[in-house]
């Protein structure tokens, strides 16, 4: 069994107003200590993100999971005048399984149709070696304020998958070693994270392969296991001030059809208030 957890941890900020990464780790470990941990909103040396602590959250989380190998993908990487440390903000993956290769994707940030707040976005991809073979796992956090950017970011993720499928035979001509070597980067793939899109929205439909000509051949894992049951809420349960629309789902696991037969469960932890989002867990055979 391989267990993957995805969670927007809001830099450890709970609905009680306290930043507590120990609490985040405790919740994660309570789910049978997942093999792969995918986190969004992780900060390094950024007092704006963690209520003035300016902590190196990457290092803290790495130490809280000593059996996992940590990887960080900053979407934001700033050096402010007079400071020694770079302020970073982005996504993190911790893996207890061997990681064959890693990719950092800076996502598109086109000009909004109407002026609005927006920020650079990133996707972090790892190829892990499982008993069933190599698996690509990508975690991301798409744009919140600008629908155009969010949709083009989803398009990019789909395009990556299409490119990989089209290039699967590269190993036939690739050298055995060096930068041109064909390290496994399989079609079997999971994309998870905070997509800032709800079911039925254009971005969701693209990622769920409902726009076939530009899809990435992904499908939402939830209805595979839960059939017609609505998605459990992943946001807005405990934080009505930040989410006045109430409980809803904007955090998903999308998987390739090749993984459907291996899927055992997908569920949401609706009990924890350690972040404004809820953890989502995917179990594969």
UniProtKB/TrEMBL annotation:
Top-level taxonomy: Bacteria, Pseudomonadati, Pseudomonadota, Alphaproteobacteria, Rhodospirillales
Stretches assigned to the Endonuclease/exonuclease/phosphatase domain: 5-277
Name listed for the protein in its UniProt record: Endonuclease/exonuclease/phosphatase domain-containing protein
BP term (GO), one: GPI anchor biosynthetic process
Organism of derivation: Kiloniella litopenaei
GO cellular component, one term: membrane
GO molecular function, one term: catalytic activity
InterPro entries: Endo/exonu/phosph_ase_sf, Endo/exonuclease/phosphatase, GPI-anchor_lipid_remodeler
Top-level lineage group: Bacteria
PANTHER family, A to Z: CALCOFLUOR WHITE HYPERSENSITIVE PROTEIN PRECURSOR, ENDONUCLEASE_EXONUCLEASE_PHOSPHATASE DOMAIN-CONTAINING PROTEIN
């Amino acid at each position: 069994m391989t267990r993957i957890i995805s969670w927007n941890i809001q830099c450890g900020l709970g609905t009680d107003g306290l930043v507590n990464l120990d609490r985040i780790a405790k919740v994660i470990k309570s789910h049978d200590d997942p093999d792969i941990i995918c986190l969004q909103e992780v900060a390094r040396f950024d007092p704006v993100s963690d209520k003035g602590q300016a902590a190196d959250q990457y290092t803290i989380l790495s130490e809280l999971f000593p059996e996992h190998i940590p990887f960080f993908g900053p979407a934001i990487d700033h050096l402010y005048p007079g400071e020694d440390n770079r302020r970073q903000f982005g996504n993190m993956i911790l893996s207890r399984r061997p990681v064959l290769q890693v990719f950092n994707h800076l996502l598109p940030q086109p000009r909004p149709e109407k002026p609005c707040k927006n920020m650079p976005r990133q996707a972090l991809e790892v190829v892990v070696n499982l008993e069933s073979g190599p698996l690509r796992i990508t975690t991301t956090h798409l744009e919140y304020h600008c629908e155009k950017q969010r949709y083009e970011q989803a398009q990019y993720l789909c395009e990556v998958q299409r490119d990989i499928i089209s290039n699967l035979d590269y190993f036939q001509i690739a050298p055995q070693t060096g930068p041109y070597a064909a390290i496994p980067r399989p079609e079997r793939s999971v994309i998870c994270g905070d997509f800032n899109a709800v079911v039925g929205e254009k971005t969701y439909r693209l990622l769920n392969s409902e726009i076939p000509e530009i899809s990435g051949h992904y499908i939402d894992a939830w209805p595979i296991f839960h059939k017609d049951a609505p998605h459990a809420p992943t946001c807005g349960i405990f934080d009505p001030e930040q989410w006045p629309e109430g409980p809803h789902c904007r955090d998903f696991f999308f998987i390739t059809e090749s993984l459907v037969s291996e899927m055992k469960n997908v569920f949401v932890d609706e009990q924890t208030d350690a972040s404004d989002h809820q953890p989502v867990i995917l179990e594969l055979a």
